[in-house]
């Protein structure tokens, strides 16, 4: 007896339908047999009818059992085919799954390699950036130390003055030749100027003095109320005017220095504040012939001074240049004469070479005639004599 629980449901449905058809056919045959024997049933008694019915039922059962065996055999064959197909499909599915797993593993390995490389690259970039950050932090620390040192310098009045003088020295030495200026030059009145630029007369040597009114400027920047601001502005104006007066009295010496001097402010911020909000102080400096300059404007002024010094040097050397030009013209004249003589010598040599060429050609022709006379026959000799 086959195991119907293991059979596919679709096959069971088909088998049920076939069984229903077979049962219907058997019942139809049984009904026909009953109708055929209806006449005989009337003649037979009740016991014969029962025996016939039992025999018909036995025959029908046997037929149905045979048909059921056939159906079971067919179902078993189909189940075997289905099992074989299922095994084949299982193997195919297993192989496909294995192939996909292998491909997935390969892709995962490749992806892991790429991610590992990216992670390593990112780590190296992070380390590089951390190194840059560390360097920047060290630079910031060094800058902070330098700022603190710079603040210490600016807080000391003498150190602040030295700082302005150093900056002035750097600017002047970069823009002018060494002989065009003197640092810490002593004047005839005993005053020592931070820088004396040796300009020709007019205007004459001009003094540059470095000043740094930092305290009053800081007070002006730190003022919060109008009263504090007015007090700081008054102190700043007083400090600058005092510097202007000191420069005008100390460094403007008639006949020795120019009729004006430069007050050098080493800070562009102080210079901007002065020209932006204290124009009256600047005008007072103009009237006192003291011109206030910053590092930027001083460079422009020194550029003009360098051009003036260059023009003066050219004028001083004009006579020497004129003499040198005259001597150069004389040398060029002698060179032209000697070149002309050399050209004449070459022309004469060319003429002599032409004469030598003509003489050589004549000598060659005479030699050829002499050779012809020696090698020719009598007639030739006669002709040659006649020709001679």
UniProtKB/TrEMBL annotation:
Is the keyword Lipid metabolism in the record? no
**Keywords assigned:** Coiled coil, DNA recombination
Q: Which Pfam families match?
A: RmuC
Q: Give the top-rank taxon of the lineage listed in the UniProt record for this protein.
A: Bacteria
Q: Where along the sequence do coiled-coil regions lie?
A: none
DNA repair among the record's keywords? no
Q: What function does this protein fulfil?
A: Involved in DNA recombination.
Say which family it is in: Belongs to the RmuC family.
Designated name of the protein: DNA recombination protein RmuC homolog
Q: Which species expresses this protein natively?
A: Tistrella bauzanensis
